[in-house]
Amino acid sequence: MNISELQPRDCAVKSGPTWRGLARGAPIMIGYAPIGFAFGVLASTAGLSVGGAAALSVFVYAGSSQFIAVGLIEGGAGPWALALTVFMVNLRHLLMSASLAPYLGRLRRLEQAYFSFELTDESFAVHSAYFQNGGEPEAASLFAVNTSAHLAWVASSLAGAWLGSRLAFDTRIFGLDYALAAMFIALLVCQLGSRRRVLIALLAAGLSTALYLGGSGHWYIILATLVAATAGALTEKAQAPEEGERR
Amino acid sequence: MTAQQYFLAVVLMALVTYLPRLLPVLLLSKRGLPAPLVRWLSYIPVAVLAAMLGPLLLAPAGTFDLLPARNPGFWVSLPVFLVAYFTRNLFATVLLGMAAIALWRLLLW
Questions:
Q1: Are B63 and B22 found together in one domain?
Q2: CB contact under 8 A, A95 and B49
Q3: Pair (B16, B59) in one structural domain
Q4: Side-chain half-sphere of A90: how many Cα atoms within 13 Å?
Q5: Which residues of chain A fall short of a pLDDT of 70?
Q6: Which candidate from A91, A182, A205 shows the least CB-CB separation from B44?
Q7: Residues of B whose CB is below 8 A from A59
Q8: How many CB atoms sit inside 10 A of residue A9's CB?
């Protein structure tokens, strides 16, 4: 299945791993297109310039937090409140990064740094499936997955921001305003591996909504996440200290 | 927000997003994290996604409202959850969700 196993690493055909990476990354590119477009339109509707929207997609490159950031900017939040919320929203990447780390020991530091910059929920899903099936950690193919997805994200958000700034674009047409919720649902469903996790999700969603409606400012996501994750870890320890979690 | 504030905001957001992505790969290529921390971290994805989704579905306009005419997103989410569960496909889920809500508005407006 894997051609790279048949040839010495040093004389691998240059285009080989890149093309294999692009093949793995293609579904991400296709999936990002409507979401990136929706982000661009919403960003320009919220008053961001095309450059301002693109800067988020290039340098932050974390879909859900970019939507949240636009919402907070529209609500008048300052840079530090934005940074703190985005930090909490993106803290989940810590775990993804930690779980891929054992496979990336062969990369050089600079390669690790570049790889991590483009680690998203979706590229993580593709990479971990690849490694679990015995895939080789060849830098070129890993970068091909990541960078093609990143380019698709930047291009689609540029297109959305550009169109949104020129047309009086109602984001409700085509259901673009629902793209984020749908993406969250798709990602959340993949996390619901046990009954405990379903309960933790319900707790987090309910608590977050209550805090949001109770006027806790921009803190509702952070607080609900901390409480729910702690509840999950504590109850797991109390009830199923070993491997009962994946019942 | 001024241009200067926005610049600061992007720099800060880029930094706080990059560090959690970078540090584990950089530091843990050979070591592991303490088990309790790993256990707690393993609940972050499910908790944070649900925490973001809750208000989006239950109170999209800032007040709790499940009336289909004003909050179609909540009702569309029920089939979208099923599609996500059975297909496990981001693209299919997003497209179907968008199509469903566009259709809903087209037919019921």
A1: no
A2: no
A3: no
A4: 32
A5: 1-15, 169, 171, 173, 217-218, 239-247
A6: A91
A7: 10-11, 13-14
A8: 11
Query: Between A and B, how many CB-CB pairs are < 8 A?
Result: 290
- Is B1 at the interface with chain A, CB within 8 A? yes
* CA distances, A149 to each of A29, A36, A58, A152 (Å): 5, 11, 11, 5
Classify the C-alpha dihedral A69-A93-A182-A213 as positive or negative. negative
For A70, residues 6+ apart whose C-beta sits below 8 A from its C-beta are: A39, A42, A43, A46, A48
Domain ranges of chain A: 16-190, 193-240+243-247
The confidence score (pLDDT) of residue A171 equals 67
Q: Please give the residue range of the domain that contains residue B93.
A: 33-108
Measured between CB atoms, does B66 come within 8 Å of chain A?
no
- ipTM of the complex in this document: 0.86
How many domains are contained in chain B?
A: 2
Q: Is residue B10 domain-shared with residue B23, that is, in the same domain?
A: yes
| pLDDT of B98 higher than 50 | yes
- Is any Cβ of chain A less than 8 angstroms from the Cβ of B61? no
Residues B48, B23 share a domain: no
**pTM (two decimals):** 0.75
B40 shares a domain with B20 = no
Checking if the pLDDT of B89 tops 50, the result is: yes
Given a cut of 70, whether residue B109 has pLDDT beyond it is: no
In which band, very low, low, confident or very high, does the pLDDT at B17 lie, cut at 50, 70 and 90? very high
B17/A90 CB distance under 8 A? yes
Co-location of B9 and B43 in the same domain: no
